[in-house]
Amino acid sequence: MFTNLTKILVAGALVLGASSVPTIASAQSGTRTFTVVNDSRYRIDHVYVSPNNYSYWGGDQLGRDVLPEHYQFYMSVYPGWYDVKLVDEDGDSCVIKDVDFRSGATWTITDGLLVACELFTRD
User: Which domain holds residue 80?
Assistant: First the structure.
């Protein structure tokens, strides 16, 4: 049985394969850019996003960069609900569930968020 995301990905591939270049540009413009602020005392080495409750994380949103404390970076995603996996400078990872990237412009990582995330994440 296919998951909803698998159905969406297959449908998207079929639409893109049968569409013209202007439609592809239009689909790409559906993403929104969010400012991700690290307002914690920890360096974040990796940021992964996944559609809500989906097990595939995709690539590291930071690429080869890291996110030092009190810095920010810009991340483009399609508006929706996501799970976010963070890996800090010590290699500790945690998953923040149900992050709302539908509206707003900024998502802030705080010490409290990281502590709660580590307490409730089971890798």
Answer: 31-120
